[in-house]
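Z., the sequence and structure:
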Amino acid sequence: MAVSTFFIPPVNKIGSGCLTEAVASMKDFGFTKALIVTDSVLNQLGVVKKVSQLLADSGIASVTYDGTAPNPTVENVDAGLALLRDNQCDCVISLGGGSPHDCAKGIALVASNGGKIADYEGLDRSAKPQLPVIAINTTAGTASEMTRFCIITDTVRHIKMAIVDKNVTPILSVNDPDLMLGMPKGLTAATGMDALTHAVEAYVSSAANPITDACALKAVTMISESLRTVVHNGSDAKARENMAYAQFLAGMAFNNASLGYVHAMAHQLGGFYNLPHGVCNAVLLPHVQVYNIQAAAGRLKDIAQAMGVDVSAMSDEQGAQACIEEIRKMAKDVGIPAGLKELGVKEEDFRTLAENALKDACAITNPVQGSVEDIIVLFRNAM
């Protein structure tokens, strides 16, 4: 087994009501002024006001950037950075799902390293730690609040840049399921399927290890038990908490074992057509795993078992097929579109999408390494 390195924020708070405790603990860091990075919806819902009041109670001033797009852009990073510098903020608080977290990481990385965000595309390109980031999560899916991954859309090249850097790891992650209770059905489904994709891709990854395996399989089980419930009844507090833990476990898995072709391809769809990341993952997941059977049948059988399928009498091949069926069933039950055609993806773009997917950092650890033609076929199958 190769050497494994494990990345995670030094402090992580999970559980109902942990937001208050987390914000109060921030004064121990000696911060005086925070840039809150969020989106306009959370600002309108009053969540930002709640956080800024908690900060004020701890003697920390704050200023808000709420311009984050669903697929955060280079322009979002630049705008947030200008606000941070104008107000001399000494820390960044990301509030929301993956989009604000990624935008905040981008801002904080450039704030301390200089240059522009595109300079850091790839693996560990920065020289020093970012400005401290405290990530307050409101969705159960991306795990961006605790990872070293930062995905920013380059609107000129129409691609999502994957910045994988230990220096973008937040210093504190907060998963308070009370903040997730009002999450709409579609977002709950998409982010939940994103978490499932993280767990599956990490488990079949060529960089998997015993720690990531344990996290991935437990995440799969908890998602299988809770996602349908929480999509159909968003105020189920127990199911929300289970999903908060599950997405965090999936994050621990992929933050250290990385991902595969599902994410490499989904990043292209998101960058090219501005589509929701979780939905792209959910549509692609079964098709890529069919392709991965040639190298990972036994592992996919393990996932089927974690999803509650009795695989005792099955061969690895049969178990893998059962896993793929179970993934399809879950996607259908939570209302994920049947194919990419419904999302407006066009066949004439496949070659460009496939070429860019193979350049994505996530492609490196897919258990089967294929050609541009192979990726084109996967896109076609997912239509």
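The longest strand covers residues 91-96. The chain has two domains: 11-179, 186-382.

Let me know what you think.
H.
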